[in-house]
Amino acid sequence: MTNEVHHPLTDFVEYPLDEMRFRAETNLAELRRRHSIRKFSDRAVPREIIEHCILTAASAPSGANHQPWHFVAISSPEVKAAIRREAEALEQSFYAGRAGQEWLDALKPLGTNANKAYLETAPWLIAVFSQKRGGVAEGDDKTNYYVHESVGIATGFLIQALHHAGLGTLTHTPKPMSFLSKICDRDNDVDRPYMLIVAGYPAEDATIPDHALKKKTLEQVASFI
Ligand code: IYR
User: Fold this and answer.
1) Where in the numbering of this chain does the Nitroreductase domain appear (predicted)?
2) How many H-runs (helices) and E-runs (strands) does the chain carry?
3) Does this model's pTM top 0.90?
4) Contacts of 84 (CB under 8 A, 6+ apart)
């Protein structure tokens, strides 16, 4: 027995097979053009674009529909500078040895280092937070479910939305990330930093490492049984 209200599914769109094929192919082509970039232009991006992309992320499926996430969109130069300062301090010790040799070797083809100028140059940083507790309604304090899965999907939606809108993106995960709660003025017991997404136009001389083009084949990533 259910006392939940259900609605008919009126917004599902079915496409003829040819169109379905076309849509699947063009979506693949569009996402294959998404590359993590580390050199951003300082050109402004209107806030309303970021708002739409965050709402796209927030449309993601989540455990019991609790939507266990919070997004802090940062364009303030002072806040970006503070994030850069903290992140670079962490990255310096990471690259100086905290990462361990195997990890540093894995990063070599990417050419990354402790300099994170893009954290100040890019017009937007979006800090994604996950919430262990919450619920659907404002002020709820219930257990959230599948928090990492849910926030991971939402972050994927966010990256896809930003790319689809025509922006360059980078995922950034300094370790530990707790400084983000403080800088973003979030209660670290409620909002756990999950990932930082850098968004903006690529710089004219932005590059991607050869490594980035080496995507696994269908045979490597999938089995059909
Ligand atoms: N957070 C560091 C290191 C880093 C780690 C991985 I795994 C990457 O794919 C890229 C970078 C940094 O941002 O440099």
Assistant:
1) 31-201
2) 8, 6
3) yes
4) 116, 117, 119, 120
